[in-house]
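Tokens for chain A. Residues wanted.
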């Protein structure tokens, strides 16, 4: 069974930094895209950043220049380095991945359980 587990959330003051990590585990044949979404109270879940197997990157306009997504294919991990954090970055951050499980010929979308990021003014 494939699982995504996030870590690294917490409370930080505005202007500070946090690094989120997400590990994919289980029977995995291949991983296509990996990324991060966030959901603030009363708002829809939105894409923050994504990285594809060919290293193609995609960022939300609101985080460009402040956040950096990276990936370690050997460890099946994805990271989100968040700098110059703002109170409006406060949200639950979810890891997302498009994974082909071992023994199957197609891929599925998986989500982590979420990690809270709170940025105080």
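Reply:
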């Amino acid at each position: 069974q494939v699982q995504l587990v996030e870590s690294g959330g917490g409370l930080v003051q505005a202007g500070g930094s946090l690094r989120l990590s997400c590990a994919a585990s289980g029977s995995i044949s291949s991983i296509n895209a990996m990324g991060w979404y966030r959901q603030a109270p009363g708002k829809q879940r939105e894409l923050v950043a994504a990285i594809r197997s060919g290293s193609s990157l995609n960022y939300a306009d609101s985080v460009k220049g402040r956040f950096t997504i990276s990936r370690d294919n050997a460890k099946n991990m994805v990271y989100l380095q968040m700098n110059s954090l703002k109170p409006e970055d406060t949200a639950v951050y979810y890891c997302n991945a498009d994974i082909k499980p071992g023994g199957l010929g197609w891929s599925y979308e998986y989500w982590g359980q979420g990690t809270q990021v709170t940025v105080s003014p």
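The longest strand covers residues 28-39. The CA atoms of residues 3 and 25 lie 5 Å apart.
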